[in-house]
């Protein structure tokens, strides 16, 4: 992924509010936040009613042109409206656009990054900085949720930021040798980690990290995994292999579905989040 460039104490990111609207009980605030000099990240901030200090979630979207609008419940598939649903349950939720999707036109490579994956980690850490700075957020109760692209990026964020107390990852990973028969070409594109191809020859035997190690590294935190039996992207048997490294707190569900986040499993995930972050 390249070097992680953030270190030491940081100020909350600068924010510019673009618009605000009320949808039901939720205030939707469309904003940009400054992840680093010259690079603004478009995002939705969903604010539930009430003045109490709420737990907060970073909600990461799948690979879709809708970007942040899908988890926010404004476009796309209803089964992926998890940011909207969490806000309705009383969570403050930040939904950023991933580079090249939604309204995010940033080019990580022009900014000096070796991968878009690392640029996304930086954006998401800065998103947590923003959430933690809000007066109606309890900075000790932060988590991350995502599907597919957002599913593995929620894991990557948790590895680099210990403030993430609980992770929900849906259709986001499998053991490397189980991915497309062991051909990691799908991971070496512009949106991911080009070095997987240029240095590590798309080979699981050469890449210096794998998802079982990520799962093991999160043993002391909450980890909820949605891994459908018929996911054509992330092989379920590879997920089962990874979960052998999980701690006792972790939960994995295997619905009879494709690359999706069905309603029953989302409800389980929300109850699991509440175990770690409260209501």
Structural summary, described in words:
With 279 residues, the protein is of the alpha/beta class. The protein has 7 helices and 9 strands; from the N terminus they run ββββαβαβαβααβαβα. The protein has a 9-stranded mixed sheet, sandwiched between helices. Helix 2 packs across helix 3 and helix 5 packs parallel to helix 6.
Which key features would you list for this structure?
279 residues, alpha/beta, nine-stranded mixed sheet, 7 helices, 9 strands, 24% strand, globular
Largest sheet: 9 strands, mixed
Put simply, the count of helices is 7
What's the total count of β strands?
Answer: 9
Shape: globular
Mean pLDDT: 97
- Helix/strand-derived category reads alpha/beta
End-to-end CA span: 35 Å
For the largest beta sheet, what order do the strands appear in spatially?
1-2-3-5-4-6-7-8-9
Q: pLDDT under 50 segments (min length 5)?
A: none
Radius of gyration: 17 Å
Percent helix range = 25-40%
Q: Helix and strand string, N-terminal first?
A: EEEEHEHEHEHHEHEH
Q: Based on the structure, what is the oligomeric state of the protein chains?
A: single chain
Strand content: 15-25%
